[in-house]
Amino acid sequence: GQQVMQIPQYQHVQEGEDFTTYCNSSTTLSNIQWYKQRPGGHPVFLIQLVKSGEVKKQKRLTFQFGEAKKNSSLHITATQTTDVGTYFCAGWGKIIFGKGTRLHILP
Amino acid sequence: DGGITQSPKYLFRKEGQNVTLSCEQNLNHDAMYWYRQDPGQGLRLIYYSQIVNDFQKGDIAEGYSVSREKKESFPLTVTSAQKNPTAFYLCASSRGIRGNQPQHFGDGTRLSIL
Lengths: 107, 114
Description:
The structure holds 2 protein chains of 2 kinds.
Chain A: E1 4-7, E2 10-14, E3 19-25, E4 31-37, E5 44-49, E6 55-58, E7 61-65, E8 71-76, E9 85-92, E10 96-97, E11 101-106
Parallel strand pairs in A: 2-11
Antiparallel strand pairs in A: 1-3, 3-8, 4-5, 4-9, 6-7, 7-8, 9-10, 9-11
Chain B: E1 4-7, E2 10-13, E3 19-25, E4 31-37, E5 43-51, E6 54-57, E7 64-66, E8 76-78, E9 87-94, E10 104-105, E11 109-113
Parallel strand pairs in B: 2-11
Antiparallel strand pairs in B: 1-3, 3-8, 4-5, 4-9, 5-6, 7-8, 9-10, 9-11
């Protein structure tokens, strides 16, 4: 069946370093959404990518959708303590969430 | 303010007991969803509903039941048939079921076995 794999599962970075999480699907996706869940909180929608090769930016966050629409990435430049949390991708065709990447920031 | 309200925040279940988790939304969204989240896991879809009086099984529907009698409400019952119910349950809604609509989540209900 359709699977969405997310790597890495955990990432520890020094504050100020960059961070990237990757999302890979076994099938072509119609679109992909990214969510952030703070510790003890609920997922909050960040962005949606629809077009092949699409790149979107939100301040220090850059989101990419692969040419084949089977993979995506989220890159955070110069991480801050407010970036702590788990980042999930959600692939659509059928609703499938990745397992998330938990980001820890070392001061 | 519009949003999704889940209650209770914490719930304890005895062996052999059914429990119902409440989810209410005032966003006027057509679609509603229930997810289960276990430590280190992503969100797994239990049930979803596109419209009143209609719902579909997700990937892990066994041991759960839902109803959608009103647009605003989508309660989830965890039955005694669900042998490992301890988890964090999240309710979400979106304007439609199509994947171009972002999902809005409630604060969740944490269910534990006594």
